[in-house]
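Hi Y.,

Following your request, here is the sequence exactly as I used it, all 385 residues.
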Amino acid sequence: MNDFLFSTVSDVLSGAGTSRQLGALAGNLGIVRALLVTDPGIIQFGLLDAAVDSLKASNIDYHIYSDVVADPPETVVMDAVRIAQEFACDGVIGFGGGSSMDVAKLLAVLIKGEQALADIYGVDQITGGRLPLIQVPTTAGTGSEATMVSIITTGETTKAGVVSRTLLADKIILDAALTTGLPATVTAATGIDAMVHAIEAFTSKRLKNPLSDMLAREALRLMADNIETAVKQGDNLEARSAMLLGAMLAGQAFANAPVAAVHALAYPLGGNYHIPHGLSNSLVLPHVLRFNAPQAGELYAELAAIILPDQRLPEDAIAATGLLADYFLALAEDLGLQTKLQQMNIAATDLPMLADEAMLQQRLLINNPREVSLEDALAIYTQAF
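Below is the corresponding structure, written out as tokens. Let me know if you'd prefer a different format.
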């Protein structure tokens, strides 16, 4: 067994209605003036109400920053830093999807004023500490609540990441009641996103480890068993709870065994066409599985047995990988997602540009079980077209 380092969040509170305990958890961390980081949709649908009531009951002052947008730009981060410093907040609560939680991580560091945002991009560039941090996800997908990564938009189509164990939250609240109102397409796309996290962690070339493997397997079992119910019966709390837990487990897995070619090929789709990240992953996943099969087929066959427990799988690993790819293609279609790039108004003439941009994602491609060339990337996009 190879040596490994595994880092994750220390405390997870899971259960329907647990966001009502936010005030008590914040108080236990010594938070007196909290910054709640969220987006306008969370406010509009009243998802924050119970959490705010719990802060009031615990006599914790709070300010709500609700200007987070998808793929948040640097301007949003710096605007929130200024407001939080004026409010003199001493703790940060991320409440929402991956974007809100990514911004919350950075704020917990930047509000202290010890480093500028530009100085912490990259791996392990944070030199100081952070304020207490609680994450409350309202989607079951990104796993951001359990990761040490924050992704920020830095240009028209470019993003940059901050990677540091300092970004790991103090506490996570998994309240499935917050997810029952999610639209079916969002539930489907974020669910497949989380399944991709688990698959790529399990097959990661560089930092694969037994703890990530264990978490990835359980994440896939939970999500394969429950994604269709969660999408088609949105108020099913049991299915929603399983998806929320599965997404977090997948987040813990890929935080320590990083993702690879599926994400590398998905990012240009999001950057150029503003396709939601989960859907971008879903569009290329089956084709990356087939491409990786010669090197990762045995591992994919292990996962196929978890995802397709009632199906008799072929002994040949590449054939089993083919069944897994077919499953994800059929799943996306059944859940109402697009399955071809051309359905997203992408022109065939754009595919070489996408391949060029995918090759810039070397930080991800180095984790892929099979080396990806420019020609390979173009071939995968062509198959997905």
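The chain is about 50% helix and 10% strand.

Thanks again,
Q.
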